[in-house]
């Protein structure tokens, strides 16, 4: 029996040597990509975080850089990532350099929270035919949202939230065949939401659409209301009209935030998507009463209908009983029971 005690340590030792000997050498940086990165560093005005970016070292080991491990295109730069969580002076400065378009294997471009990163999205980005993730939130980027972004058909995730983009949402933005997330919240976008945007959710539905915190106006297009979203944030805009076509018990939607708009509708007969986790409708012009169907939303944990024109008795039940009066007050004439009104 004693021999068994040795089995475990011996096999662990074997595994250790196996991995030690089999571990690949560090990826060798592609010389062309290294030259491009050094131009990008200069374009960003040599940020302090990029001191490791120098001629004498392997660019696959540089701060924020990742390379392709596959044998065919080994050492090609696939990811560039710098989320600045410190002082603005540590971050990137200037505008996005055109040289970014000269990293043909790039699939992730993630640069966030750089107060001094301004200017427009350059046309050069359209050369990145493998780009999947465009994550540029919390910067000072501005100008129009360019319709040429749709030339990058590989895009699956776009987050340009918390920048200074202005103008309208281009109607062409429905034409991203692989998109699963479009986040444009907290910019200066205005005008009506293009009716084409409903077509986005047909590509790989359901999809995340976040347009909150802009100056979007007009009615929400019926094509958007008819689509099946996973998450829909249209809050803090100037949207008008009746969005009830958004609600249907069999939709897959888990998150709806329509708060702080000018939406007008009667809630009385509505069937909400039964998978909802969040439903926030505060600060609109909603009339009627809260339907008893709402007690079927067993996953609902965030709910707010304050500052509307609702009336009648809040249907008692397992879901509505989760929320105290701060989720309902004030309204026109809502009551918990015949003798207890808010
Ligand atoms: C290049 O980067 C390495 C790693 O950060 C650093 O040790 C070295 O001093 C740098 N060389 C030059 C010439 O800046
Ligand atoms: C963004 O940068 C500022 C400093 O400029 C910092 O205080 C803040 O925590 C950062 N935010 C995030 C989300 O990283
Ligand atoms: C976009 O990025 C911002 C900043 O990190 C984040 O707050 C927001 O939730 C993101 N949106 C989506 C839909 O991922
Ligand atoms: C939406 O897509 C359908 C089919 O893919 C197409 O026929 C229609 O023209 C598109 N609508 C818009 C407004 O782009
Ligand atoms: C709804 O969106 C607004 C931003 O427009 C945000 O402040 C609020 O937290 C969101 N509500 C929920 C429950 O996520
Ligand atoms: C509901 O929304 C109102 C208006 O924005 C806010 O004052 C209240 O605190 C919110 N209630 C909860 C529970 O978040």
From TrEMBL:
The keyword Glycoprotein applies. It comes from the Eukaryota. The keyword Transmembrane helix does not apply. This is Polygalacturonase inhibitor 1. The gene is PGIP1. It comes from Platanthera zijinensis. The lineage of its organism: Eukaryota, Viridiplantae, Streptophyta, Embryophyta, Tracheophyta. SUPFAM superfamilies: L domain-like (SSF52058). It is found in: Cell envelope. Belongs to the polygalacturonase-inhibiting protein family. InterPro entries: Leu-rich_rpt, LRR_dom_sf, LRR_N_plant-typ, PGIP. Residues 32-68 form the Leucine-rich repeat-containing N-terminal plant-type domain. Pfam families: LRR_1 (PF00560), LRR_8 (PF13855), LRRNT_2 (PF08263).
């Amino acid at each position: 029996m004693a021999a068994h005690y040795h089995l475990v340590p011996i096999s662990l030792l074997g595994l250790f040597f196996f991995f030690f000997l089999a571990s690949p050498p560090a990826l060798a940086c592609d010389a062309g990509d290294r030259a491009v990165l050094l131009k990008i560093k200069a374009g960003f005005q040599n940020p302090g975080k990029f001191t490791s970016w120098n001629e004498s070292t392997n660019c696959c080991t540089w701060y924020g850089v990742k390379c392709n491990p596959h044998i065919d295109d080994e050492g090609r730069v696939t990811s560039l990532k710098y989320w600045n969580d410190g002082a603005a002076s540590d971050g990137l400065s200037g505008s996005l350099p055109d040289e970014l378009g000269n990293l043909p294997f790039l699939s992730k471009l993630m640069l966030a929270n750089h107060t001094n990163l301004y200017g427009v999205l350059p046309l050069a980005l359209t050369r990145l035919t493998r780009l999947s993730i465009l994550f540029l939130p919390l910067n000072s980027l501005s100008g129009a949202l360019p319709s040429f972004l749709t030339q990058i058909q590989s895009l699956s995730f776009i987050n340009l939230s918390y920048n200074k983009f202005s103008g309208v949402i281009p109607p062409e933005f429905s034409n991203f065949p692989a998109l699963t997330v479009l986040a444009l919240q907290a910019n200066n976008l205005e005008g009506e939401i293009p009716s084409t945007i409903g077509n986005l959710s047909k590509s790989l539905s359901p999809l995340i659409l976040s347009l909150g915190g802009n100056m979007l106006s007009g009615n929400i297009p019926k094509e958007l209301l008819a689509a099946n979203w996973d998450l829909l944030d249209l809050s803090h805009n100037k949207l008008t009209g009746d969005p009830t076509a958004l609600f249907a018990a069999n939709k897959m939607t888990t998150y709806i935030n329509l708060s702080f708009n000018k939406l007008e509708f009667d809630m009385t007969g509505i069937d909400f998507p039964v998978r909802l986790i969040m439903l926030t409708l505060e600060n609109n012009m909603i009339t009627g009463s809260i339907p008893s169907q709402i007690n079927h939303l067993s996953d609902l944990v965030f709910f707010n209908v304050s500052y509307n024109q609702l009336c009648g008795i809040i249907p008692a039940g397992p879901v509505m009983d989760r929320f105290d009066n701060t989720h309902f007050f004030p309204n026109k004439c809502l009551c918990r029971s015949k003798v207890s009104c808010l």
